[in-house]
Amino acid sequence: xxxxxxxxxxxxxxxxxxxxxxxxxxxxxxxxxxxLFFSKGIAYAYxxxxxxxxxxxxxxxxxxxxxxxxxxxxxxxxxxxxNKTNIEVMYRVEKVLKGDVLSDxxxxxxxxxxxxxxxxxxxxxxxxxxIFLKKNNxxxxxxxxxxxxxxxxxxxxxxxxxxxxxxxxxxxxELVNSIYDTDTQTxxxxxxYLMEGVGQMGQQAPPDYLIPYLKxxxxxxxxxxxxxxxxxxxxxxxxxxxYMDEISEYLKDLPSEPDLGxxxxxxxxxxxxDPEMIPMLNDLLLNSKxxxxxxxxxxxLREIRDKSSIPYFIKGLDDENQEVRHRxxxxxxxxxxxxxxxxKNVNPNDVxxxxxxxxxxxxxEANETEYLNKWKKWWGEEGKIKYSKEVKAMExxxxxxxxx
Length: 404
Prior knowledge:
alpha+beta
């Protein structure tokens, strides 16, 4: 993945750094593992440090495109680290998206000492990028050193109609333009920036003006890795439910190579509480081959708590993944007891009856079979009769799917 920089002194390679794309992948993995704490009753945690294009644009005095003019060699970095001195770099402005600098101006940016800021965050010589700056005594500093630059396409790949009436919109359309670039690495970086900076890893709906481009990227012919999945996920958060069938089919099969789009959709699914999605979610709980998708779907259905999902939860007790099985146990319990996290409307008799059916993760790992058998016994003796209407609806839906 590009964005990785190496510095060579006397032929010795030093300080190979992790790039922005890798950072995003690590954030994705971190958010996923934190989401696993659902099974222990801990709320989903927000991961700080994500790029937020709206926020960083508002906080900046200057936002512009252009390219770096300074070569940051190892001697400069080593001297900065040793003497705790700032680093100065020059940047040539091409397009002003916000602020009072002039196009083609050459501006000076002050970087913190090397120990305080990783070198790849600075605009290297000839790197074309968007930067976000604040004024500082006649020069500039980065608004957020974690997101100092967004590498973009230097070419005009796409013509945009309508007014570009805000700096935020201008930044986002620069990223869209880059997705159309023929250079795969440039396009892929723009995809990552959109996923993080606009979609907030599946937690935030995109602005309306982005929808037409997302619909284009969502087509099966999309050539950029992960773009189709991320576009479908963003359309889902925007409640473009006409894409539900496409999303469902996209999620059912395992990818042949790592696909950030699937994780993006899975997180979006886990946060949307819309009854219109229940049939698709029920289907994915049984038919997606990706356990990560099934886990997020089970959590969403657990939060919605619709009786139509009970037969699907029962089948989920046989899922190959223990976290999914455990999530399904909790979901059945919560529907049966009319459970809510404020403790209201709970039938005490049901709580006493089912209380022993929901073990902690530690107990479940030690003796899972005991608890699975309890639920299956309840289903055979009582639940299947109680939910006979829901069972028939599931069987009808499954027959419909099989006859496609």
